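Sample intake sheet
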Amino acid sequence: MSALQQLRTMTTIVADTGDLAAIERLKPIDATTNPSLITKALIHPDNQSMLAETMSRQQGDVDAVIDALTIQIGCSILELIEGRVSTEVDARLSYDTQATIDKALEYIEAYQKAGVDSDRVLIKMAATWQGIEAARYLETQNIHCNLTLLFGQHQAIACADAGVTLISPFVGRILDWQKRQQNRQNVPVADDMGVQSVKLIYQYYKQHGYQTQVMGASFRSVEQILALAGCDLLTIAPNLIDELANMDVEVTRQLSPTMSTDLDAMSKVSLTHEEFSAAYQNDKVTQDLLPKGIDGFISAREELAQALAAMR
């Protein structure tokens, strides 16, 4: 078996793309998107007729057009996969709990009107305190959430405590940060802070019986991916999925619930807002990367908004 085939026996593989042709070819169980990926998908020549039709229906309201197109892309993806699609709330709402809840409910209603069961949708939002609190409420309404832009253990602890369905720790962005801070061109996987972060979170969740799933994300290499073989889910870009499919190496499971419970016990923690904020202030990685990640998603949405405005 190829490395990809072996990996699939241990881990749910998710396609980190909004490219419908790539999803149809790769046949992942789930698919996850973000504003950057949605923007790339919507400016693709094949989607121009859908863009024009939606622009006309929404009478040029750019925000309404982007929301409608996001749902349409989500529905198209769901026609190609067996599992779930992650649909991201506008990143401008990342620090507003109620606005995030309201937008999530709008998205779920839109999916339901399109005939999609809400169990096939993960509402995706940044793992700010406000985003996590929004997810806490949404999960009580049986709306499943994927907390993204996750870089620190304190974020993971708060997400588990809130009962969220899924978290997406960003492996590659943590590695990028490590390289900049340490002025290194290459970091062995054994020293990779992004890989180690996911392993620590996974261990903590399994030792304490949390149902929240861990989905490693934002990979820079197949070596990072294979170092997390056995993680609940891994969301992987198409080029890295193809690389794994062409690799003829033995894949060794690195993570499992049994392995985690055999390791030294980690104390169970529940964080107040003040404790979460203090942990954030002490976590240089999250301090640097979370705001940049939110700004990046906002910029991607603005790029799409400008392109749509030019079409009017």
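Comment: The longest helix spans residues 284-311. The domain at 3-311 is CATH 3.20.20.70 (TIM Barrel).
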